[in-house]
Amino acid sequence: MKRTSCLVAVLILAVSSVAFAGLPPVRLTDTCATVPTIDTEADGLLTLLAFAGLGDLPSYWTADLEAAMTGDGIPDSCELALLGSALCAVGRTPDEVAAIAALRGQFATNLGLVNALLDKLTLLIPIALGDGDTKPSVDVRLAAAADIITSRPVLMSIPDLATAAAELDDMAVTVSDFLNDPDNAMIIGMVPGLPDSLRGVVDFVAGLVGLSTEMQGTVTDLIDQYSGDITGIVAQVAAARDAFIALKTNPAVTPPLTADEIALIDGMVADVNFLIDTVDWLLNLTDAVAIYGTAGKAAGEPFSAAGDYDGDGVTNGAVAAAILGETASWTPANVQANRPAFVAAASGDNPFWNGNPTLPAVGVVGLGLLAGIVALGGAMSIRKK
Ligand SMILES: [Ca+2]
Ligand SMILES: [Ca+2]
Fold first, then answer.
1. What's the pLDDT tens digit per position in 26-66?
2. How far is the CA of 96 from the centre of ligand 2 (A)?
3. Which of 73, 128, 201, 351 is the most buried (most CB within 10 A)?
């Protein structure tokens, strides 16, 4: 009897959770609004993207987007549920309270970045489409800028400027064709409302981008795909801006620039400067993203597949593989059904989860039998007295 009690105590000690970086064991509960909010937002974003004509979108439940969308073996919806539950948690020790507070600070940082991105987008849209009032759309302004050169023989006699004017006119026509193509009418019509629509999904995006360095890599890859083109365009635009600034004060320009022309140049220079700053900010954006549960970038970040949230020696990825199976076997229904089990098992809330390799081979059934033996032994020892 005595030896059996000892064995049970040892077993329980062996599988009890050791908090990693003070993050507490958590479970998915109805009382935490964070996870349902993230789920609803993710659904909303997928609906918005589908409406915008992006086909072949993964289900939110089975999406696994790390490392340029090759995934890390844990459905992102499960990693977000673990994060959301930890954000809701109440610490039992000073370490846990501090870890949760730090996690919430990181979430606030990432929310701030997503909102700043939308603020910038809000300002960029009228630069492209016009403000329906004093600012015409960008194609009209490009054509007017070309006119400043083409209407002055002295400027057209300079080959570089004549070429620049022709390029501006070309750009104006390309943009105008795009903006006025009936096939694009629906998507262009959606653009002014886009920042507000995206404000409705900021928790999901802020949660997702900070899950791990691997997830950050997906965002960086996405930006990198276009960054070459974007930096090229920015360099051209900056050169055109400088040329127009020089024209404003060059005494050889005849007739001198009119007040309207100067206002057009000043307005475009301000917009170009904003565009250049925004692109620069965007290209460095992922470096500013906080990775949850780490003070920087680290191996085994606690919400990543290689990470071990509860520090029991079993990685989150191994927990997911045991509970949810391999990626190919995931379905939206089984991921959704098994997600609470993943959160409890990965966080250490349920050390006795089915498949836990730190449990002895007898597993849960064996522990039940042992408990029975202990009870039986107790009854017998009482009887003996
Ligand atoms: Ca994932
Ligand atoms: Ca673990």
1. 999 878 899 999 999 999 898 888 887 777 788 999 999 99
2. 17
3. 201
User: CA separation (Å) from 307 to 82, 84, 301, 310, 314?
Assistant: 12, 17, 5, 9, 9
Q: What is the DSSP string of 62-86?
A: T---HHHHT--SS-HHHHHHHHHHH
Q: Taking the chain, what is the end-to-end CA distance rounded to the nearest angstrom?
A: 15
Question: Do 199 and 118 meet the contact criterion of CB atoms below 8 Å apart?
Answer: yes
Cα-to-centroid distance, 358 and ligand 1 (Å):
23
Ligand sitting nearest the alpha carbon of 314? 2
Q: What 3-state class would DSSP assign to 200?
A: coil
pTM: 0.84
Chain mean position to CA 115: 12
DSSP state, residue 183:
G
Distance of CA 278 to the CA centre of its chain: 18
* pLDDT of 234 higher than 80: yes
- Only one residue has tokens 């501090």, namely 98
CA–CA separation, 51 and 326 (whole Å): 31
Q: What pLDDT was estimated at residue 226?
A: 85
From 113, 102, 187, 176, select the one nearest 143 (Cα to Cα): 176
Q: Among the bound ligands, name the one nearest to the CA of residue 316.
A: 2
Alpha-carbon distance of 278 to 283, in angstroms, equals 9
DSSP alpha helix (H) spans, the chain: 2-15, 34-51, 66-69, 76-88, 94-129, 138-150, 153-156, 159-180, 185-190, 194-199, 202-209, 213-249, 259-283, 285-288, 316-324, 332-347, 363-384
From the CA of 302, the nearest ligand is: 2
Phi, psi of 103 (to 5 degrees): -65, -45
- Please determine, for residue 15, whether its predicted confidence score (pLDDT) is greater than 80: no
